[in-house]
Amino acid sequence: MAILEGRNLTVSYYGDIDILKDVSIKASEGLITTIIGPNGAGKSTLLKALYGLLKPKNGAIFLRGEDITRLKPHQFIGIGISYVPQLRSVFPDLTVFENLELGAWIFKKDRRKVTNAIDRVFTRFPILEKKKNQKAGLMSGGQQKMLEIGRSLLTDPRICLMDEPTATLAPKIATQIYQTLMDLKNEGITIVTVDQRVKQAFEISDYLYVLELGTNKVSGTKADFEGGLREMIKGWLD
Ligand SMILES: Nc1ncnc2c1ncn2[C@@H]1O[C@H](COP(=O)(O)OP(=O)(O)OP(=O)(O)O)[C@@H](O)[C@H]1O
Ligand SMILES: [Mg+2]
User: Fold this and answer.
1) Of the four, 8, 70, 190, 235, which is 20 to 30 A from 78 by CA?
2) Which residues line ligand 1 (CB under 6 A)?
3) Mutate which of 43, 166, 168, 217 to test ligand 1's pocket (most atoms within 8 Å of Cβ)?
4) Listing from the earlier edge strand, what are the strands of the sheet with 159-163?
5) Beta pairing class for 190-194 and 32-36
């Protein structure tokens, strides 16, 4: 059974313009599922729908088979799902530590849990500990992305949704972020990611979905793509 599933999702931002049309996606537990597709295909919209930020007109979201479509966005953290948006989301004028403290609001009544969770982020990303008193907005793009990912892990999610975690990063930094995704997978966390660096995403993914014009174009395991489906998307393989 998929741990997280979007079934036959039709989603719009307003009115009659459906951005996703009958899109389905399944994420298997402990694996990396990646959504790829050209600009404007609806990849971010799909991730927002899976996180409850956009309610589908039709279709449903399931967590371990249970319908969670009508949960409010803030309830998704409580059921073990986290989300890192495509656009930068750190508070630039707050320090790294303050950004993490804010991210730990869900345990705010338990000081020790907050401290432990922040310490785990510092172990994963030592650079954040070094810069903990620096304003987040003054760090490099890669470090800010680590802060966003670190913050999303404070609540101990079982499923992480990440929208283009390596976009705009230098190749060396992108490689570090991919390593983080693989580390998370090795810790048993399920990852659903959107990526435009198709080649690298392909390397780390177990399952891929290709969206085009708001619809499912093709999907399969990495092996399926190696066996021929790759031809179908070669136009935008970099
Ligand atoms: N807040 C919004 N209000 C209205 N339309 C939107 C909004 N956000 C996105 N759209 C439209 O929805 C469509 C899909 O956008 P989406 O951001 O999901 O694509 P994407 O595949 O993530 O693209 P990119 O690769 O550029 O990130 C686009 O036509 C876009 O203009
Ligand atoms: Mg997007």
Assistant:
1) 8
2) 13, 19, 37, 39-45, 86
3) 43
4) 81-84, 159-163, 190-194, 32-36, 207-212, 215-221
5) parallel
**CA of residue 38 relative to chain centroid, distance:** 18
Running along the chain, 238 residues long, what does each successive block of 10 average in pLDDT? 95 93 98 95 97 96 96 88 93 97 83 93 98 97 97 95 95 95 97 91 93 93 76 60
Is 0.85 topped by the overall pTM?
yes
Termini Cα distance of the chain: 33
187, burial (CB in 10 Å: exposed 0-12, middle 13-18, buried 19+)? exposed
Task: Decide: 206 and 32 in contact? Cβ < 8 Å.
Answer: yes
As given in the structure block, the two tokens for residue 94 are 């707050």
Beta strand pairing status for 81-84 and 159-163? parallel
Q: 87 CA distance to ligand 2 centroid (A)?
A: 9
Pocket test for ligand 1, best of 10, 11, 12, 13 (most atoms within 8 A of CB): 13
**Other Cβ atoms within 10 Å of 224 Cβ, number:** 14
- The pair of structure tokens assigned to 87 is 């656009």
Domains and CATH numbers, the chain: 1-80+157-238 (3.40.50.300), 90-156 (no CATH)
Q: What is the rounded distance in angstroms from the CA atom of residue 26 to the CA atom of residue 198?
A: 19
